């Protein structure tokens, strides 16, 4: 068991690329100018046809199609993770990560008064590794484990659902599609240990028994939700950045530099089938999404912002649900506690890549704006944090768990791997700082989750905008 996944971060080799911006490289396939254009795949052709028929589309629409379209969306194909894929995530680095998450939920289950019936909910479970490790660790606490009446997974990708099904030891004989008018994309099975597992397309469809307290985890889910991009023009107004076909001349828009390049580099890489353009007038999305006064006063001409209304929608729903059912949530992702401008990027073969090349062939992501999530939860749930992953894992005892695992093996290679994984998860220069945790509790709850600091009155859910000084 010890170091089971440590082979993905061997000592002496450069670490695989996390989906976060530290050690960012923009030399991925197609990032440089002068690379020959690849043939567009079916999804690229589909997006090109949409643009040619209706005009440039938002970055959010492009991102949504590139990740989750049934015709070749990146996650729909489901081959993303690990050394053979494009990136590794914390649960895939070490079992310690999922075990600590289970301990955190078990601790707060006590603080919530040991509810007899709970439902574990995960948004974007990837390969099912985090949930598998959490369930295994939860078995060590029999009363807590007995309270778990079901596991509810929000996953769009049919291929990843299959991987999760196998990972959780689900019985194929007991797997069935549930014909439910309200949740057409729902399926159900039974995992090892007899726990019912349910899959859903969207959070809206999740429906555990009403007397179950939801314990919700979302790891690297919000960074995959689509963002709109805006730039403040010389007229002082917010213009939206849209995705256009690289060959098309469009007199409604201004051609911009490609994502991930320096402002002075104006030319479009030849390998791109798509380009960013800026609307000449204020778009409806800009008018709708940037209404808040802070966008007028805190940003200068030439500044960019990324906004994810889909993240706000999911967060508001989650906050409402957690409050009504007296539940608990933990959101873990990379990002900052303020609105950011230029983080939309592709990830391919463990490198950063130009997101406008070959949609569907690479992961697309943007850093999470935790202040926006807290803002979306206001009036519904109480958000605590975000705090840095390194601080969280240390406070939750990762060093003690590391010691246990080190003592359980006499193999020095395994021991080295374990220490390396611990460092990758906690070191501020690795994943310890840029990854953050946000806890979500019912608005009425007086509980301050461990290890979050008590909020200072007005700070609770207060939106925060800090401009990045470039
Ligand atoms: C970056 S992966 C993270 C996987 C896993 N949590 C981990 O850390 O290893 C994002 C996950 O969210 C899922 N996903 C992305 N967008 C989604 C959406 N709009 N609705 C439901 N699931 C989505 C993907 O299929 C994938 O399982």
TrEMBL record:
GO cellular component: mitochondrion
Enzyme Commission no: 2.1.1.320
Catalytic activity: L-arginyl-[protein] + 2 S-adenosyl-L-methionine = N(omega),N(omega)'-dimethyl-L-arginyl-[protein] + 2 S-adenosyl-L-homocysteine + 2 H(+)
Annotated InterPro entries: NDUFAF7 (IPR003788), NDUFAF7_sf (IPR038375), SAM-dependent_MTases_sf (IPR029063)
Biological process according to GO: methylation; mitochondrial respiratory chain complex I assembly
Keywords assigned by UniProt, alphabetized: Methyltransferase, Mitochondrion, Transferase
Keyword Plastid: no
First and last residue of the signal peptide: none
Single annotated GO MF: protein-arginine omega-N symmetric methyltransferase activity
Subcellular location: Mitochondrion
Domain of life according to the entry: Eukaryota
Gene3D superfamilies: 3.40.50.12710
Pfam families: Methyltransf_28
SUPFAM superfamilies in alphabetical order: S-adenosyl-L-methionine-dependent methyltransferases (SSF53335)
Top-tier EC class: transferase
Similarity comment text for this entry: Belongs to the NDUFAF7 family.
Biological function: Arginine methyltransferase involved in the assembly or stability of mitochondrial NADH:ubiquinone oxidoreductase complex (complex I).
Name used for this protein in its record: Protein arginine methyltransferase NDUFAF7
Protein species of origin: Coemansia biformis
